[in-house]
Amino acid sequence: MTSFEEAETEETVTCLHMTFYHPCQEDKMMFRCLNFCKREQVRADEMAKFGRDSNVCHYNLMDTRVSRIQFSLQFYRKLNSSEFCFEIKNMSKKTKLIVDQTELGYLNKIDLPWKCIICFGDYQILAEVQEGESVDYFETYLHLAEVPILQERCLPSLQPIPENGISSSLFSSQSKSPTETDENES
Asked: Where is this region: Disordered (predicted)?
């Protein structure tokens, strides 16, 4: 056997991509302690903590309006599954944490969707999970946004707009339930 044949199988690593935005970043530099565009390993049994207390949090936000520990992320594997997930918990007594449309009070926690927007105060964080297989650690990969994340992704209506550009919700006489039509019908 060659050394190539005896080498251990390479595992893929779950990576949490997080894109940060704050309207005053250019002036106040609240993200100056974050390592952007560099993957960082976090042991699977450790909690990733975000906040202003550098003694407790690995991810520091340099802003007095941020709690000592703002929120934490716990990496885990679902019961009877090979799927890995993150659980997000609000650690701030003063500020609510919003994950997509879900508002979390102090010590509330939910599973982090595979792609979502996390908001607190003026902070906006786009979180995207890239799946992997490693059980020993996960990685974080932080990015800095130039424009508001909500501005980029937010649409005035959550309803799909048909190709003709006219929304059926504009016409109250039309049925509210979706209807299927053939493209060739006139």
From this structure: 164-186
Closest CA to 66 of 35, 101, 24, 108: 24
- Quote the CA–CA distance of 9 and 24 in Å, as a whole number: 45
pLDDT in tens, the chain (186 residues): 556 566 566 779 999 999 999 999 999 999 999 999 899 999 999 999 999 999 999 999 999 999 999 999 999 998 988 889 999 999 999 999 999 999 999 999 999 999 999 999 999 999 999 999 989 999 999 999 999 998 655 444 444 445 555 544 444 444 444 555 555 555
Q: Which domains does the chain have, with CATH numbers?
A: 15-150 (2.60.200.20)
Q: What is the pTM of this model?
A: 0.75
Q: What gap in Å lies between CA 33 and CA 59, rounded to an integer? A: 7
Q: With H, G, I as helix, E, B as strand and everything else as coil, classify residue 165.
A: coil
Whole-number Å distance between alpha carbons of 164 and 31: 43
Instruction: Provide the 3-class DSSP secondary structure of residue 124.
Output: strand
The Cα-based distances of 42 to 22, 162, 173, 179 in angstroms read 25, 44, 56, 48
Is residue 4 helix, strand or coil? helix
Query: Number of C-alpha atoms within 13 angstroms, CB side, residue 173?
Result: 0
